[in-house]
Write a structure and sequence with these properties.
- By secondary structure, this protein is an alpha+beta fold.
- It has a single domain (3-149), classed as Adenine-n6-DNA-methyltransferase TaqI, Chain A, domain 2 (Alpha-Beta Complex).
- Helix content is 34%, strand content 21%.
- It is built from five helices and nine strands, in the order βαβββββββαααβα.
- It has helices at residues 7-10, 109-116, 119-128, 139-143, 152-190, and strands spanning 3-6, 11-15, 22-26, 34-37, 67-72, 75-80, 90-91, 95-100, 146-149.
- A four-stranded antiparallel sheet has the order 2-8-5-6. Strands 3-4-7 form a three-stranded antiparallel sheet, with no helix packed on it.
- α2 (109-116) packs across α5.
- The termini are far apart.
Length: 197
């Protein structure tokens, strides 16, 4: 039997901000809600020049083990920062960084990411989100979400299952994209005038 904890019991929740001097959003490694330096010069360190405060809040630099949550209309995206390339980047507006408190509760970042994809999280999100066109989730509401605290072995099993399904969904999406591209080429070719073929 599992116990329950609020998200604030096990993690610090920080809202992302986008400094005015940031570059375009970086969408790679399955991440959304990250910004990169405005200049791509080779001698820049990740996040250089992005320390300006926005509305009195400093930007949140990502650390290994952070869970990045982005809430969009009809879509929730989640990633665990475990790629050293992404450490030091900033969480952008519309994103939340869930940073687990070390040693308080035995909850792994990958389990938190799997839970965010669950119907349990979805029901809490639906109840806590305001705004129809642009969904808004307050950090206070997110902190009050309850999460099951399972044994480390069960958490690892669920996290592995989540990664397996995510990999399968990504592969299927790529296959469908390739199939649609092939269909467009075949259709274009089929519609050529016979004298052009």
């Amino acid at each position: 039997m599992s116990s329950q904890a609020t998200l604030s019991d096990i993690a610090v929740i920080q809202r992302g901000v986008t400094p005015a001097n940031s570059g375009e959003p970086l969408v790679s490694h399955g991440l959304v809600g990250i910004v990169k330096p405005a200049s791509d010069a080779d001698d820049l360190e990740v996040g250089d020049g992005l320390d300006a405060e926005v509305r009195g809040r400093p930007p949140v630099r990502l650390k290994a083990g952070d869970v990045l949550l982005t809430v969009r209309p009809s879509e929730v995206e989640v990633s665990v920062i475990d790629d050293s390339f992404l450490v030091g980047f900033l969480a952008a507006r519309g994103s939340y960084v869930i940073r687990l408190r070390p040693g308080l509760q035995p909850v792994s970042p990958h389990f938190v990411a799997a839970w965010i994809q669950s119907p349990n999280f979805g029901r809490q999100l639906e109840a806590a989100t305001t705004g129809m066109t642009v969904p808004r989730l307050s950090p206070a509401a997110l902190r009050s979400f309850t999460i099951p605290v399972l044994s480390p072995a069960r958490q690892a099993e669920i996290a592995d299952l989540s990664r397996t399904f995510s990999a399968a969904a990504t592969a299927l999406s790529r296959s469908l994209t390739a199939l649609n591209e092939l269909w467009a080429v075949e259709l274009e070719f089929a519609m050529l005038d016979e004298s052009d073929a």
